[in-house]
Amino acid sequence: MLELRPGCECCDKDLPPDSTEALICSFECTFCADCAANVLGGACPNCGGELLARPRRAADKLVRHPASTQRVFNPACRDKISRTP
Can you tell which superkingdom this protein's organism belongs to (predicted)? Predict the structure, then answer.
């Protein structure tokens, strides 16, 4: 089951479970649409995988299977990308 992480790993923007701006890689690294497009070029800085729209869980299912509350924030992702040749 997807964790539905609560924020962008790059800029720490809130990404609630129903957000249409959340993108993930196959490892569930989570980024906002702005960082994915304008900073990361559509690729995960952690694994190099493709970033795709994160599925949204139906509100009634969130009661039984809540989204994660653990934030992953790594502002160095911007530096990692800017140093890539």
Answer: Bacteria
